[in-house]
């Protein structure tokens, strides 16, 4: 022992031995010598570096030992890989027992497990000592390890969606005196409850912290932010975000990323996401790759190609290395615009950077090729997935089916669908919807309904898109009985029609009903749905309304559709005008067109030049085109009424000798003409103020010798119907046929030009027709609805 003491003192004097050696010597003395050498151990501790974390820990423990030196018996806890595995096994066994046990409560299970596994006694043997697998020695673990295991059990239960069981585990931990409820534990339980959708419980636990000693820190606030974000409560997230600042709790990177990610998922808009990003940079928080990934995802929700390119370049300048998510998000931006070439360039850059693409990347490129019309490139990318060792998933197959659908390759779409089933993948509603749309485009309406019946009989719940495709097939095949049956299926399933579904039913009302009874049958189908959209559409079609009420209903409909979704709103308003025209609500159809036109959803309908005034209705549906045609003629009549096109004397109602008007119109009283101009202009297709038209250079106002105004009208007036919506090929068109019928009924001097998609008239002949006594009355749009059900 003397030699051992001498060796220790030599090390102590030289101060050259390591701390591990000093502790080793210390342990040997304390186990073999009495209390007289314990003081020497204190000298060893004093000789150690004063700034050593281990030394500080020893002193702290010594001060708390009521005069007894306890640091000699507390070893730093070291855990091997085997013990980590044992801890994971304990967690899995506990989770399994909690989920499988029906008779024993969660609290009883945990209490029983703690009595078997836990120990408050200080261990005197080295903690790194391992126990054989078949050892009968009790595997006691300290209570802090018990807390870690139970915490892991609670988190696992929450991630699996068993929020009630997770909450019971938390309540049990609150009752244990040995379990310290620190901010980390509260963070875990709030995050777990929020992740499983139990926001009200997470809110309650967060509020209960006011009466405890637990201090709310940034991490704890972030957990509740995540819970509110997952629930989609935008305003609640912003309120908590402001509350953090009031509590002097500085938001960190996770805070800003959580808020930006919520804005993207809720479709708030790119502008607000960028404003949060700028606020983050202004507060000195450096963005990471996740921040830029969120911004690029926000760009992918709309047509924000330039913004995405700018963000991508800024990201590289900051030295942030792109990940597979970054590249995939940028490809998705180009996919939304159908820019296949740009998407492939990003893909090549990704491969050059040695970043392996995943299945989401390939799916995004296939979508880009499909929207850009590059079927061969989409097939090449689909085959290239095998070379990269990436297996297509359901979303990839859905993208390929959609590519074939858009280009009329319904056979290839069907083969791809069968290949997906053979690969062992379960088709989704999107898969069936794409296949139904493919058959519908090929005119195979019976196949569409057959797929619909298959989806109904399967375990899948029909989506609103599935119902809509089946309805559209019935409408196109004039199967109105099928329309009523599918609408009843929707009502029984509690599935509310969306804007596209309403457009399909309204289109059937406008063009597929051969009599009033069929129209009434379809109107009855719109009953029974608890939907603002359906309620407003039906009120517009059935009940008498004032102009202000019509405007309010249109506003309610417009608010149910995203402002960015111009295509959906255009289709819905066109179908609504078709239905109103078919049901006899002519003036109301004009009010709908006026409401839509004033919001620039239909632009470019009129082109005014000095030589020709043109009305282009190719982009409109039949009802919209007819309403616009009548309002166009009403505009021309109002312009004619404002000037002295017939230069005559106040004393003798005679036309000048060079007039081109018919001789039968030579004796016309001006007061008689004024009394006939009662036509109503509801849609502002062009300004009715002559001086404004003159400033725009489309009319010329001159004065004759008798100081009377004379309008130099354009030589031609043209109506362009085309052969279909934006069609450039000759064929049948409901728009053209509808306008032609109205031209023949009214007797308008419009003649079909060399191509049957245009109707032209010389201004002189059109003016003579407009000034006829009966013309104004025939151009008035009255509401003459047939008897409709209430």
Automatic annotation (TrEMBL):
InterPro entries membership: PPR_rpt, TPR-like_helical_dom_sf
Keywords noted in UniProt: Repeat, Signal
Signal peptide: 1-15
Pfam families membership: PPR_3
PPR repeat positions: 217-251, 252-287, 288-322, 323-357, 358-392, 393-427, 463-497
Keyword check for Signal: yes
Record-linked PROSITE patterns: PPR
Taxonomic superkingdom: Eukaryota
Similarity comment text for this entry: Belongs to the PPR family. P subfamily.
Protein name: Chlororespiratory reduction 2
Organism this protein belongs to: Sphagnum troendelagicum
């Amino acid at each position: 022992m003397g030699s051992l003491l001498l060796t220790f003192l030599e090390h102590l004097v030289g101060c050259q031995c390591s701390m591990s050696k000093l502790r080793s010597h210390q342990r040997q003395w304390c186990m073999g010598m009495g209390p007289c050498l314990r003081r020497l151990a204190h000298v060893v501790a004093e000789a150690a570096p004063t700034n050593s974390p281990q030394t500080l820990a020893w002193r702290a423990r010594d001060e708390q030992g009521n005069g007894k030196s306890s640091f000699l018996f507390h070893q730093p806890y070291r855990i091997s890989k085997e013990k980590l595995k044992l801890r994971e096994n304990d967690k899995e066994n506990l989770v399994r027992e909690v989920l499988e046990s029906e008779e024993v409560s969660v609290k009883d299970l945990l209490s029983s497990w703690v009595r078997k596994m836990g120990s408050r006694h200080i261990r005197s043997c080295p903690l790194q000592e391992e126990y054989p697998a078949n050892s009968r020695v009790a595997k006691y673990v300290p209570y802090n390890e018990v807390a870690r295991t139970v915490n892991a059990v609670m988190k696992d239960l929450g991630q699996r969606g068993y929020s009630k069981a997770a909450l019971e585990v938390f309540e049990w931990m609150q009752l244990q005196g040995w379990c310290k409820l620190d901010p980390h534990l509260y963070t875990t339980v709030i995050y777990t409850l929020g992740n499983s959708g139990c926001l009200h419980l997470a809110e309650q636990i967060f509020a209960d912290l006011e009466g405890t000693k637990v201090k709310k820190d940034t991490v704890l606030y972030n957990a509740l932010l995540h819970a509110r974000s997952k629930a989609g409560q935008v305003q609640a997230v912003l309120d908590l975000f402001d509350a953090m600042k009031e509590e002097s709790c500085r938001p960190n990177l996770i805070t800003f990323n959580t808020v930006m990610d919520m804005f993207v998922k809720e479709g708030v808009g790119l502008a607000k996401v960028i404003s949060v990003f700028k606020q983050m940079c202004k507060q000195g928080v450096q963005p990471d790759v996740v921040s830029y990934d969120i911004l690029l995802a926000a760009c992918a929700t709309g047509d924000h190609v330039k913004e995405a390119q700018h963000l991508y370049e800024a990201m590289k300048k900051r030295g942030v290395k792109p990940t597979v998510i970054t590249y995939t998000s940028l490809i998705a931006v180009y996919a939304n615009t159908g820019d296949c070439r740009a998407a492939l360039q990003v893909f090549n850059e990704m491969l050059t950077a040695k970043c392996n693409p995943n299945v989401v990347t390939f799916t995004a490129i296939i979508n880009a090729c499909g929207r850009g019309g590059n079927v061969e490139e989409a097939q090449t990318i689909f085959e290239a997935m095998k070379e990269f060792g990436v297996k297509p998933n359901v979303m990839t197959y859905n993208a390929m089916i959609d590519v074939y659908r858009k280009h009329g390759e319904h056979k290839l779409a069907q083969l791809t669908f069968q290949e997906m089933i053979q690969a062992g993948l379960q088709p989704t509603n999107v898969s069936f919807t794409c296949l139904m749309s493919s058959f519908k485009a090929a005119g195979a309406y019976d196949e569409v309904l057959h797929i619909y019946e298959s989806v109904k009989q399967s375990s899948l719940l029909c989506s609103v898109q599935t119902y809509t495709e089946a309805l559209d097939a019935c409408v196109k095949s004039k199967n109105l009985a099928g329309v009523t049956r599918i609408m009843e299926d929707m009502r029984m399933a509690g599935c509310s029609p969306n804007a596209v579904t309403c457009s399909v039913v309204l289109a059937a009302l406008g063009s597929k009903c051969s009599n009033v009874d069929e129209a009434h049958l379809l109107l009855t189908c719109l009953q029974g749905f608890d939907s603002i959209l359906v309620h407003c559409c039906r009120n517009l079609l059935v009940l008498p309304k004032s102009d202000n009420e019509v405007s309010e209903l249109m506003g309610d409909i417009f608010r149910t559709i995203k402002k960015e979704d111009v295509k959906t709103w255009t289709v819905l308003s066109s179908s609504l005008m078709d239905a109103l025209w078919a049901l006899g609500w002519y003036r109301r159809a004009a009010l709908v067109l006026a409401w839509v036109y004033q919001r620039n959803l239909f632009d470019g309908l009129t082109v005014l030049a000095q030589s020709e005034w043109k009305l282009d209705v190719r982009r409109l549906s039949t009802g919209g085109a007819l309403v616009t045609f009548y309002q166009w003629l009403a505009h021309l009549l109002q312009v004619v009424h404002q000037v002295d096109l017939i230069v005559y004397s106040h004393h003798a109602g005679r036309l000048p000798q060079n007039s081109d008007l018919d001789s039968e119109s030579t004796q016309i009283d001006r007061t008689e003409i004024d009394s006939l101009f009662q036509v109503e202009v509801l849609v502002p297709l062009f300004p009715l103020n002559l001086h404004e038209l003159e400033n725009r250079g489309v009319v010329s106002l001159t004065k004759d010798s008798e100081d009377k105004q004379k309008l130099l009208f354009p030589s031609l007036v043209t109506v362009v119907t085309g052969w279909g919506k934006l069609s450039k090929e000759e064929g049948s068109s409901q728009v053209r046929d509808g306008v032609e019928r109205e031209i023949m009924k009214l007797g308008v001097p419009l003649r079909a030009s060399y191509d049957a998609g245009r109707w032209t008239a010389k201004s002189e002949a059109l003016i003579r027709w407009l000034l006829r006594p009966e013309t104004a009355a025939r151009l008035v749009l009255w509401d003459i609805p047939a008897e409709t059900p209430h």
